[in-house]
Please model this.
Amino acid sequence: MTAHPFLDGTVKPLFIDGQWRPARSGDSFESIDPSTGHVLTRVARGDAADIDDAVAAARRAFDSEWQSWKPFDRQALMLDVAAAIDRRFEDLARLESMDMGAPLARTLSFRRWIQQTFRYYAAQALSIRGDVLSNSAPGDYLSYSLKLPLGVVGAIIPWNGPLITQLWSICPVLATGCTLVLKPAEEAPLSTLMMAEILHEAGVPKGVINVVPGPGPTAGAALAAHRDVDKIAFTGSTLTGRKIIEASATNMKRVAVELGGKSPDIVFADADLELAARGAAMACFNNSGQVCYAGTRLFVERSIYADFVEKVAEVGRSLKVGPSLDPQTQLGPLASSMQLEKVTGYFDIARADGARIVSGGERLGGDLADGFFVSPTVLADVDNSMRVAREEIFGPVIAAIPFDSEAEVVAMANDTTYGLGSGIWTQNLGRAHRVARSLRAGMTWTNCYAVTDPGVTMTGARQSGYGVKGGPWHLDEYLLNKTVWMNIAGE
Ligand code: ADP
Model:
């Protein structure tokens, strides 16, 4: 077994009210290293009773002196947390790689992003402000708005990148003065537990951040339906997102959902084809395709289709697939055996539906046979109505579809229930802007893909969800925009 200072052979407990404790049921589950199939550790299995405890702790913390922390205090705390993360960053990145399979090169590269995210939100903590609103009501009234922390937030996150996904709730919670119950996915709970330890040691008051790993249908569902939770921030599949929205009706809590995608990436014949081939390949292959806005439907103008698809396949073939801790690895395993089964199932579906496998399309054996590895895959001769072009696979699988005109490709790109990412590769400026405006997606990248920054909003459209992450409006989702009327009429 690979050693790690956070993995001491004991069952990793829940973190509630500033304390480490077992699940009330006493149950635990295995956390598996997807590179080897071996058990990394056991983790306490939280369920509804533990969620109740965590929400109660978060409520007590919300009603405590946490409310009297000034913006400067919260900012200072966030900067202390950022420094504490940096001190233990290599261990944190390694733990994430071991738990969910992303190559160390990838998780280590998050260092800058994490620091910038904390700093960005720490800066925002100082600029929360209401407005004085003019009114024409008869009499003499002063009316103004106050931005107040919303309350107890529940965050439910997936397994494809918890190290960074957790920051989308931790940072706004700390910046606004809310409190949090965070439920990571069972497949990859470890980096959130280690983060809880770091937050605690850096001085985050007890109960402000609680972490309860556990199954979605019990722990997750209890959090989503909880009557004392004021907001749920969910990242995950569209299917589960719908359940979260339904569960939120118990107390009309606020909801933000970032869901699945089947994002189009469009390559016109006039593009810089070298740049586009590498860009289009990595738009999907990064993180072994386990990215919600991965560019999985590759639309290529027919005049360059055959050559370009081959170029993309060549990029795929050149990538080094291997164990997550090998410094040479560019693509790690899929995160779980379930994911492996799902992705290899789509190879069969692709063949049966008449797609042609240009590269990849298989589980990897040899030294990698014990892990959950597949090769980067390019499917050609795909029709936009095939299952591989409509369903989210969440693996390194590109479905390449030819097109003849701008109007046709925009219509095909928008012919999906999703609307998260999208990409355009062209040197024609007018076309780039025109197509960017026409794509029904929350984000469009032009001559690049998947560039992100904490200061720039990420959002979805249609069944990819609603709510924003990052950028200047994210904190509004953690604030009550309250109105105050003052009668200031004289005698
Ligand atoms: P995936 O199928 O890719 O694992 P999910 O949307 O099921 O994606 O999982 C994302 C997160 O949602 C995980 O933390 C999971 O435990 C949680 N989850 C799954 N089902 C439910 C549910 N019914 N209610 C609340 N959370 C859930």
